[in-house]
Amino acid sequence: MDKIANLTCDRPVSLTQVSHKYRAKLYLLSLTTPPKATGKVITPVSVGSSKDVDIAVDAAKKAFKTSWGLKVPGSVRGKLLYKLAELLERDIDEFAALESLDVGKCKVYARAKAGDIRHCIDVFRYYAGWADKVQGKTIETSEDKFAYTRHEPYGVVMMLSWKFGPALATGNTIVLKPSEITPLTALRLADLVIEAGFPPGVVNIVNGHGPVVGQAISEHPLIDKVAFTGSTLVGRKVLKASSESNLKVVTLELGGKSPSIIFDDADLEQAIKWASQGIFSNMGQSCVAGSRIFVQEGIYDQFLTKFTDLTKRLAAATGDPFDVGTLHGPQVSQLQFDVIWFPCYDLLASLMSPIQRVMSYIESGKQDGATVHTGGVRHGAEGYFIQPTLFTNTRPEMKIVQEEIFGPVGVVIKFKTEEEVIEAANKSSYGLACHVFSQNISRALRVAHALEAGSAWVNCAQWTDKAVPFGGYKQSGIGRELGEYALET
Predict the structure, then answer these.
(1) Is the pLDDT of residue 100 over 80?
(2) pTM for the whole thing?
């Protein structure tokens, strides 16, 4: 645990890794990243500006034209990506600790290490294998003509994790803005990029706030592709900035309000286990969270009783992510926890707009007449803890049924027929994922096909794989990540 102790310091964290150099901040501003369990500061992190973005883009453009892109064979790009995966695996304990400290993930060495960091390593290795297999085609036209296609990298792009691997494998250079709420693992990864041997300027990390650094990236005329993960509200801003600048290609992975549909013939114990993971994993802070739980009337009472018991056990095991036995941790920030005001992601960053977050959604559900079946309050007096919460007796038009909460709040809804639940599940502006539970595989697949969602899990939940494409329908996004599909987008 020595590494963990070294992470809880009060020294500044470097602002920007550009062309293998850590730059001093241009503006005397900083943000702080607090441990989510206490709300106290881990460390101040310097904030970048649009000038930093310009410098990073220039470095990335230079690298693309001289030492990366099609100047470097795919086999070499693959070796470097594989080396990066090896280094990340070597330092997996440190990254898992950082992730738990910064994000608040509970069971740090079970969830962060075996889950998120391990998955990131697997993704890097997967795309290292693809780097020398990106091929065009020859096309038969006539005997006096030779036609062929060649797959070429975009150039300068903005990506990380699922996006990072395919971007580097195909020869793009990267300007990355990590979340200002959770920047530590991305900043630490910059050291491994250097150690792995990537040429200067291939990977550039600019920390900062969305209305400044994010806006500058979205509007930058020399950035050819942006891949954004976040809210639908901000996704619209990114798409708008692209249309008003250089029409850069945009991939969006946005919000969700995923249904979990549990039929009478489901394996009840398995359905309860997976439905709990579907909504309460990472404290509900997942774009694919199964926050609308539809249960067929024949097992509704039995399911609700057992599901409530499991939810209360999670609540009883709420605590510090580093404590042994913790099953439910804190929300990622004060912003996510409560209702506060912050600048809109817009050119006019001084304009303020109210954003409703987890506790205010819970209050909205109460005021709209829904029943708080369990939870519905904060846990303790310190940190950003919210008890796992279940609502019943809801109506379709309620905000807690229609809007993404991004917290440990689910609604349990009774249904009668297959046709009824398909209609209810599809009555959403989102379409990222769905979960179907039934031992009748014909029905399970029929329903999964009928649901308007980009990913469908049958008799499980939130089980992604590096080789399987991921992305949404409707207002849940544009484009696909993971698998071979990501190489095309």
Answers:
(1) no
(2) 0.85
